Amino acid sequence: MKxxxxxxxxxKATFHLVALDEHGSIVIRKxxxxxxxxxxxxxxxxxxxxxxxxxxxxxxxxxxxxxxHQVRLIPGQFVKRYREANKxxxxxxxxxxxxxxxxxxxxxxIKTDDQLDVQGLHRVRERLVHNRTEIIxxxxxxxxxxxxxxxxxxxxxxxxxxxxxxxxEQNLTPSLRTLLSxxxxxxxxxxxxxxxxxxxxxxVAESDAACQRLRKIPGVGPLVSTATVAAIGNGAAFKRxxxxxxxxxxxxxxxxxxxxxxxxxxxxxxxxxxRKLFVHGARAxxxxxxxxxxxxxxxxxxxxxxxxxxxxxxxxxxxxxxIAWVVLASGNEYQHQPIAAAA
Length: 343
Description:
By secondary structure, this protein is an alpha/beta fold. The chain has three domains: 5-99, Nucleotidyltransferase, domain 5 (2-Layer Sandwich); 113-207; 217-342, no CATH class. The protein has 14 helices and seven strands. The strands form two sheets. It has a five-stranded mixed beta sheet with strand order 3-2-1-4-5, with helices on both faces. Strands 6-7 form a two-stranded antiparallel ribbon.
């Protein structure tokens, strides 16, 4: 029995394994617990193993790789096309075993513990920011019902909240004052938690060499640099920066037929959180570009003169992503291009 590829469908407690030979026929079809799976895989000859890139996949992939196997993680949307007829765990494992042999697929790099730690910090921070925004909107809604409004943005509301709670002339009932006081305390608590996690991310950005190189790029700060390193490591999964920008969804969606090219809005594929960070970095670049007299600044000036603002922001985000990939893949630092060299 010669195994050509193995597909493992990952569950929380059970794992389904299907092995295919060189003709695509099923030679092994078993169900394991986690402990039993690792014991069984340790007895197998060195094999090509595929799994979907989902929760727990990176940990299991590292364990199987330590046993000598070649492990590849596949995005879930690429596995679906190889699954026939109905869906069950064994058919999913068979589809994974078929997909892992394809050379034209882009596989997900196996993340290290450090990458997963940084990714966890970003996910917790994003959740806390979302919760803070919900509280701010809820406070504004309650006050609007009493005819109290503030300027756009949380800054003015944050400054006025202490005085608002103590102002007896405001048309606020005791019950609403108590409720607003509770929301204000929750808001302050979330701010404190966000600040602590942001400080931890800043510490990672200061200590990591790759993050330090990325932070020299315009519009790339601690959040963008650490999130990029946590997502793609050294960028080895992509052949060029254009592929990385396409993976982020910062390229036009194509719907062409009959030889006629039709480009729509951006695809919005890939890592939505990282794409959002690059777009925010592009907004910062556009605000400060009037102080940049180098080649990058001149490029932004020319682009802004002929395109709408939002298109300019997306184009800048695309360029920042491509520059970031070059910095990670080459190991070199970003060099600000002077205007003379650009000419």
